[in-house]
Specification:
There is one protein chain. This protein is an alpha/beta fold. 32% of the residues lie in helices and 22% in strands. It contains 3 helices and 7 strands. Strands 1, 2, 3, 4, 5, 6 and 7 form a 7-stranded mixed β-sheet that branches. The chain is globular, with a radius of gyration of 16 Å. The two termini are 27 Å apart.
Protein backbone atom coordinates (compact mmCIF):
# COMPACT_ATOMS: atom_id res chain seq x y z
CA UNK A 1 0.00 0.00 0.00
CA UNK A 2 1.26 3.47 -0.94
CA UNK A 3 0.94 6.37 1.52
CA UNK A 4 -1.53 8.96 0.25
CA UNK A 5 -2.27 11.97 2.46
CA UNK A 6 -5.05 13.25 0.18
CA UNK A 7 -8.26 13.92 2.08
CA UNK A 8 -11.97 13.90 1.38
CA UNK A 9 -14.01 16.44 3.35
CA UNK A 10 -17.73 15.68 3.46
CA UNK A 11 -20.04 18.56 4.35
CA UNK A 12 -23.55 17.10 4.62
CA UNK A 13 -26.41 19.60 4.68
CA UNK A 14 -27.37 18.69 8.24
CA UNK A 15 -28.71 21.59 10.23
CA UNK A 16 -27.16 21.45 13.71
CA UNK A 17 -24.04 19.51 12.62
CA UNK A 18 -21.41 21.42 14.60
CA UNK A 19 -18.46 20.15 12.55
CA UNK A 20 -20.00 21.33 9.28
CA UNK A 21 -21.02 24.67 10.83
CA UNK A 22 -17.41 25.09 12.00
CA UNK A 23 -16.29 24.78 8.38
CA UNK A 24 -18.80 27.30 6.98
CA UNK A 25 -18.71 29.94 9.75
CA UNK A 26 -15.16 31.17 8.99
CA UNK A 27 -16.22 31.71 5.37
CA UNK A 28 -19.11 33.94 6.44
CA UNK A 29 -16.81 35.68 8.95
CA UNK A 30 -14.37 36.36 6.11
CA UNK A 31 -17.16 37.99 4.07
CA UNK A 32 -18.16 40.13 7.07
CA UNK A 33 -14.59 41.27 7.77
CA UNK A 34 -13.22 41.61 4.23
CA UNK A 35 -16.19 42.50 2.05
CA UNK A 36 -18.88 44.06 4.24
CA UNK A 37 -16.61 45.93 6.67
CA UNK A 38 -13.35 46.63 4.81
CA UNK A 39 -14.53 46.92 1.21
CA UNK A 40 -18.03 48.35 1.68
CA UNK A 41 -17.67 50.13 5.05
CA UNK A 42 -20.75 48.42 6.47
CA UNK A 43 -20.85 48.42 10.28
CA UNK A 44 -24.01 46.42 11.00
CA UNK A 45 -24.67 42.80 10.10
CA UNK A 46 -27.72 42.46 7.91
CA UNK A 47 -26.95 45.63 5.91
CA UNK A 48 -24.57 43.94 3.45
CA UNK A 49 -23.90 40.42 2.24
CA UNK A 50 -23.88 38.88 5.75
CA UNK A 51 -27.26 38.33 7.38
CA UNK A 52 -28.35 39.83 10.70
CA UNK A 53 -27.60 36.60 12.56
CA UNK A 54 -24.08 36.50 11.10
CA UNK A 55 -24.20 32.81 10.25
CA UNK A 56 -24.74 32.99 6.51
CA UNK A 57 -23.85 35.28 3.64
CA UNK A 58 -25.06 36.05 0.17
CA UNK A 59 -21.66 36.81 -1.33
CA UNK A 60 -20.61 33.16 -1.53
CA UNK A 61 -23.97 31.80 -0.37
CA UNK A 62 -22.51 29.79 2.50
CA UNK A 63 -24.63 29.02 5.54
CA UNK A 64 -23.34 27.85 8.90
CA UNK A 65 -26.99 27.64 9.96
CA UNK A 66 -28.29 25.36 7.20
CA UNK A 67 -24.79 23.88 6.55
CA UNK A 68 -24.95 24.31 2.80
CA UNK A 69 -24.56 26.79 -0.02
CA UNK A 70 -27.74 28.66 -0.88
CA UNK A 71 -28.16 29.00 -4.65
CA UNK A 72 -31.63 30.55 -4.55
CA UNK A 73 -30.82 33.64 -6.59
CA UNK A 74 -33.71 35.69 -5.19
CA UNK A 75 -32.18 35.47 -1.71
CA UNK A 76 -29.05 37.27 -2.95
CA UNK A 77 -30.94 40.33 -4.14
CA UNK A 78 -33.27 40.18 -1.14
CA UNK A 79 -30.26 40.34 1.22
CA UNK A 80 -28.11 42.89 -0.64
CA UNK A 81 -29.55 44.05 -3.98
CA UNK A 82 -26.85 46.71 -4.35
CA UNK A 83 -24.24 43.96 -4.74
CA UNK A 84 -26.11 42.59 -7.75
CA UNK A 85 -27.04 45.85 -9.46
CA UNK A 86 -25.41 46.83 -12.75
CA UNK A 87 -23.99 50.26 -13.46
CA UNK A 88 -27.18 51.22 -15.31
CA UNK A 89 -29.20 50.61 -12.13
CA UNK A 90 -30.85 47.36 -13.23
CA UNK A 91 -30.48 44.10 -11.35
CA UNK A 92 -28.31 41.39 -12.82
CA UNK A 93 -30.27 38.52 -14.36
CA UNK A 94 -30.70 35.31 -12.38
CA UNK A 95 -28.20 33.61 -14.71
CA UNK A 96 -25.65 36.40 -14.20
CA UNK A 97 -25.98 36.20 -10.41
CA UNK A 98 -25.68 32.42 -10.41
CA UNK A 99 -22.59 32.58 -12.66
CA UNK A 100 -21.01 35.16 -10.36
CA UNK A 101 -21.69 33.12 -7.22
CA UNK A 102 -20.39 29.92 -8.83
CA UNK A 103 -17.22 31.77 -9.86
CA UNK A 104 -16.71 32.87 -6.23
CA UNK A 105 -17.15 29.41 -4.66
CA UNK A 106 -13.56 28.22 -5.25
CA UNK A 107 -12.38 31.08 -3.04
CA UNK A 108 -14.98 30.31 -0.37
CA UNK A 109 -13.92 26.70 0.11
CA UNK A 110 -10.25 27.68 0.11
CA UNK A 111 -10.99 29.92 3.12
CA UNK A 112 -12.78 27.04 4.87
CA UNK A 113 -9.92 24.62 4.20
CA UNK A 114 -7.26 27.06 5.41
CA UNK A 115 -9.08 27.44 8.74
CA UNK A 116 -10.04 23.78 9.16
CA UNK A 117 -6.71 22.30 8.01
CA UNK A 118 -3.93 24.74 8.96
CA UNK A 119 -1.42 21.89 9.27
CA UNK A 120 -2.03 20.37 5.82
CA UNK A 121 1.36 20.09 4.16
CA UNK A 122 2.65 19.19 0.73
CA UNK A 123 4.54 15.92 0.31
CA UNK A 124 7.61 15.66 -1.92
CA UNK A 125 6.94 14.01 -5.27
CA UNK A 126 3.21 13.65 -4.58
CA UNK A 127 0.12 15.72 -5.23
CA UNK A 128 -1.82 16.16 -2.00
CA UNK A 129 -5.44 16.78 -2.95
CA UNK A 130 -8.31 17.84 -0.70
CA UNK A 131 -11.70 16.99 -2.17
CA UNK A 132 -14.68 18.79 -0.65
CA UNK A 133 -18.13 17.28 -1.13
CA UNK A 134 -20.86 19.77 -0.28
CA UNK A 135 -24.55 20.42 -0.75
CA UNK A 136 -26.08 23.42 -2.45
CA UNK A 137 -29.72 24.32 -2.01
CA UNK A 138 -32.01 25.53 -4.76
CA UNK A 139 -35.40 24.28 -3.56
CA UNK A 140 -33.75 20.87 -3.05
CA UNK A 141 -30.24 19.78 -2.14
CA UNK A 142 -27.79 19.29 -4.98
CA UNK A 143 -24.43 17.56 -4.41
CA UNK A 144 -21.23 19.23 -5.63
CA UNK A 145 -17.56 18.43 -5.38
CA UNK A 146 -14.52 20.71 -5.59
CA UNK A 147 -10.78 19.98 -5.29
CA UNK A 148 -7.68 21.77 -4.06
CA UNK A 149 -4.01 20.96 -4.07
CA UNK A 150 -1.97 21.61 -0.93
CA UNK A 151 0.79 24.01 -2.02
CA UNK A 152 2.24 25.05 1.35
CA UNK A 153 1.54 24.52 5.02
CA UNK A 154 -2.17 25.32 5.37
CA UNK A 155 -2.23 26.72 1.81
CA UNK A 156 -4.54 25.44 -0.89
CA UNK A 157 -4.84 26.07 -4.62
CA UNK A 158 -8.09 25.45 -6.49
CA UNK A 159 -7.78 22.81 -9.19
CA UNK A 160 -9.30 24.51 -12.24
CA UNK A 161 -12.45 22.85 -13.50
CA UNK A 162 -12.91 20.65 -10.43
CA UNK A 163 -16.12 22.34 -9.22
CA UNK A 164 -18.85 20.08 -10.55
CA UNK A 165 -22.02 18.23 -9.74
CA UNK A 166 -21.58 14.94 -7.90
Amino acid sequence: MVYNPSTVVNLPAEKGNAAVSAFYQPITDWVWENIDQKELGITEKGKGYVTTYGNNDYYFGTSAFQNNVDLRVGKYTEQYAKGYTKEDGTLMSNAEILDLVMSRLPHAFMIGLEVAYPDATPVDNMEVIYTVNFEAYNNSNIGYTIQYEVIGKGEFKYIEGSLKLR
